[in-house]
UniProtKB/TrEMBL annotation:
It holds the Pfam family IL8. One of its GO terms (molecular function) is chemokine activity. Gene3D superfamilies: 2.40.50.40. This is C-C motif chemokine. It comes from Salarias fasciatus. Keywords: Chemotaxis, Cytokine, Disulfide bond, Inflammatory response, Secreted, Signal.
Amino acid sequence: SSSGFSALINLLVILSTRSGLLVLGPGSAKVNACCQRHSIGRLPARAIRSYAVQNSTDICRINAVIFYTHRGKMFCADPNQKWVQLYLTVLKKLEKMDHDQPVILGH
């Protein structure tokens, strides 16, 4: 729903200004980071520090969205899940605020 989407945008903006949200676009995954399977459950938006999109290859055999948490953990999300698509929509909007480099907020 649009009210849920608005609430998520507000939450991400608030969290980004308080804790510093680093938004990385596709292709910015760490070289050695590879999801072999999807993590179970849903990651709270407040836990996300950055993200990267993983495409299926010989080495990384699944498509995934890798969310990196403030605690340094890697969460391998299924890109087909609605909550993941919603988070990506919001994160990409934040990323578009700066066209030349990843967006770093709250520093």
